[in-house]
Amino acid sequence: MTDHLKSLRKNRIAIRVSDEEKADLIRRSGGGELATWIRETCLATRPKHRNEPPKVDPILIRQIAYIGNNLNQIARSVNRTGVSSPIQIFAELEKIEKQLDQILEIHSVSKNS
Q1: With a threshold of 0.85, does the pTM exceed it?
Q2: Helix (H) or strand (E) holding 105
């Protein structure tokens, strides 16, 4: 914060909240500085900088994209033919479930390493 902003912010507003209300405000603020969040929310101001989104492994993103493609293929098949073979749909969904299990296993292992 610049000295200019510090000099402008000489007024203080105190409010009383319950423990639950305080916890809710902190949760809503995303765990960041509460005063900044309140100013942004109540005064509709935008911060000078935002936190970077977390980095995600490109392999994980690709795997999730493959699953999305499988779901799109199922939806296209159902829309094109009216009703596709339920056995075929269940087989595709089973593939997706296995892929999700693999992603979860890989992701859990890499997080715990």
Answers
A1: no
A2: helix 86-112
Token pair of 41 as six digits: 């929310």
3-state SS, one letter per residue, for 14-66: CCCCCHHHHHHHHHHCCCCCHHHHHHHHHHCCCCCCCCCCCCCCHHHHHHHHH
DSSP 1: -
Joined together, the tokens standing for residue 77 give: 């098949």
Cα–Cα distances in angstroms (integers) from residue 105 to residues 3, 12, 41, 61, 102, in the given order: 50, 50, 39, 15, 5
Q: Which residues contact 93 (CB under 8 A, 6 or more apart)?
A: 74
Q: How far is residue 88's CA from residue 111's CA, in Å, rounded to a whole number?
A: 35
* Terminal alpha carbon distance of the chain: 37
Are the C-beta atoms of 86 and 77 separated by less than 8 Å?
A: no
pLDDT digits (tens, 9 = 90+) for 38-95: 888 888 776 666 667 778 888 888 888 888 888 888 788 777 776 667 777 778 788 8
